[in-house]
Automatic annotation (TrEMBL):
It comes from Paeniglutamicibacter gangotriensis Lz1y. InterPro entries: GlcNAc_PI_deacetylase-related (IPR003737), LmbE-like_dom_sf (IPR024078). PANTHER family: LMBE FAMILY PROTEIN (PTHR12993:SF28), N-ACETYLGLUCOSAMINYL-PHOSPHATIDYLINOSITOL DE-N-ACETYLASE-RELATED (PTHR12993). Keywords: Zinc. GO terms for molecular function: hydrolase activity, acting on carbon-nitrogen (but not peptide) bonds, in linear amides. Gene3D superfamilies: LmbE-like. This is Lmbe-related protein. Transmembrane segments: none annotated. One of its GO terms (biological process) is glycoside metabolic process. It comes from the Bacteria.
Amino acid sequence: MSIFDPAIHRVQRVLCFGAHPDDLDFGASGTVATWTAAGVEVQYCIMTDGDAGGFDARSTEEIIAMRHAEQRAAAALVGVDTVHFLGEADGFLEPNHRVMKQVVALIRGLRPDVVLVMHPERNWERIQRSHPDHMACGEAVTRAIYPAVENPFSYPELLEEGLAAYKLPWLWLYGAPSERENHRVDITEVFDLKLAALRQHLSQHPDVPAMEAYVRAQSVEQGTKAGFAPGALAEAFHVVAVNAADTIAGF
């Protein structure tokens, strides 16, 4: 049973992180669409430019411009107007302090109820989910959330910029190993939007029907695991309460 109850835990703002353009569309765009339809403000942050992805010969500058445009178009389809790009090199992302400081600044600036990010653990069931950039993205954000986001002594120059410390309520991780999944969202009504968002990343999908069939099969499987109505489609997450009612400093 999930520790997150949408009837109790109100969500008004969400900040979503992905390592590459299209990661969020695979992992969470259905859930994002349900949030934005309910009036939730959602912003994206993509850590790398995706400059190592694609199947045709283009310059690095052309690839970056194309993938930024694809991600902005995909985000718009699920109701996201703001997409931040950190500009790290595809394949070289590290959970270092340069990246973490930018994460802290974004979280303190938006002060979201939920931060959603890729899972930092390796998934041995499907190792493609565990691209090193994926794990680095998850690790950088998780390290930033605790303790730096809520510690005024971390990156003190951010205080001078007006970015005060902030206690984040919830961390949602996508692409989790199955044993970590503890919350599922019904995306049946918005599944077509998820597919439409994925179709914006045509540079990454040489076989679109196969991609769509895979995404549908995964969503059906998650709907079944959740015990939703037959045929329902779902996305799965590992939800962590960062600052719950019983949280005390350091524990």
